[in-house]
Amino acid sequence: MKIHTILSSKHLVNQYLIEEENEKLGILVDCSSVDNQLISRIEGKMNLVGVLITHSHLAHVDGLGTLFKIYSPTVYAYRDKIEGIECKALRDEDEISIGSIKIKALHIPGHSIDCISYLVDNIVFTGDTLESGSIGMTESLISKELMIDGIRKKLFVLDDNTLIFPGHGSPSKIRIEKMFNQDMLEAEATSFS
Questions:
Q1: Separation CA 118–CA 105 (nearest Å)
Q2: Angle at 98 between CA 92 and CA 99, to 5 degrees
Q3: 69-91: per-residue pLDDT in tens?
């Protein structure tokens, strides 16, 4: 399995293409935009069979309409329809298989109600929930507390060497975020006061 990072310059969002070389299939994580870089990674190399949506903010789904003019993958998300496209709705702890790739959905609301992180082997695609050094923005303190609680209970319990591929910024590891994530450290400090 290979992971290709494709930065959408339109929205500054990381899109990830999971490539299963033996089966020649591909799974896209988020679809911010469809450009020549994405198409050249897919064409002649793999059959794009799935799209995993981390949440339905426009910056992460704006390319779905264009994608469906070229390909016809199954879209997985918390919602059953995004941008007019039918999705297979996933809930917390749902597990699916796409080819030989096993995927576990971890619902962590806060940044938005429909945020899902996807665990694939020792990799977690976190969208805007957990980023390198910070967490995603929220609209209220209650939403922030909900997200922090979800990160602690669902992400920080993963193996320390689990790789984090966020919607924005650089990759990280669970261990690094436990030690250095500013937002999570501030939350820990305030919980003791």
A1: 5
A2: 150
A3: 999 999 999 999 999 999 999 99
pLDDT digits (tens, 9 = 90+) for 97-112: 999 999 999 999 999 9
42-46: long-range pairs with CB below 8 Å, 24+:
42/17, 42/71, 45/19, 46/19, 46/20
Burial of 38 (0-12, 13-18, 19+ CB in 10 A): buried
Furthest-apart CA atoms within the chain: distance in Å: 57
Residue 2 has which token pair? 């290979």
All domains of the chain in start order, with CATH: 2-191 (3.60.15.10)
Phi-psi region of 121 (alpha: psi -120 to 50; beta: other; left: phi over 0): left
Token pair 């299963």 is found at: 20
Structure tokens at 23: 């089966």
Its pTM stands at 0.95
